[in-house]
Amino acid sequence: EVELVESGGGLVQPGGSLRLSCAASGFSLSRYWMHWARQAPGKGLVWVSRLNDDGSVATYADSVKGRFTISRDNAKNTLYLQMNNLRAEETAVYYCVSSTSMVKWNIWGRGTLVTVSS
Amino acid sequence: QTVVTQEPSFSVSPGGTVTLTCGLNSGSVSTTYYPNWFQQTPGQAPRTLIYSTNTRSSGVPDRFSGSILGNKAALTITGAQADDESIYYCVLYVGRGIWVFGEGTKVTVL
Question: Could you give the CA distance from residue A30 to residue A46 in angstroms, rounded to a whole number?
Answer without folding.
Answer: 24
